[in-house]
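Table S2 (continued). Query chain:
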Amino acid sequence: QVQLVESGGGLVQVGGSLRLSCAASGQTFSSYNMGWFRQAPGKEREFVAVISRNGAYTRYADSVKGGFTISRDDAKNTVYLQMNSLKPEDTAVYYCAAKSGSWWYKREDINEYEYWGQGTQVTVSS
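Corresponding output:
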């Protein structure tokens, strides 16, 4: 079992920045690939970014490339999502998720992930 707790969400103006954190407890954090997803009101949950177990690989949704950066600190059992140049369309509840095993090709599929956090709200105001 892995427990995930997100933090760092809030209200920010267009063009601003936020850094989300996801703290993990339970089984060995370094064994898990870690992803960020988001869900806007009335929309399905969508992939944002993912980082491999050792941090060597990352992938981003096209909509956030160049603006968001995912990273991890295994000593702190934490994964981060640095979000810059925020836009109103980035408004959503952001979730972190964990999947054990090697880097894999279905990394953007929400059904692949074993554990989820409760989410943190990000609101970008214009």
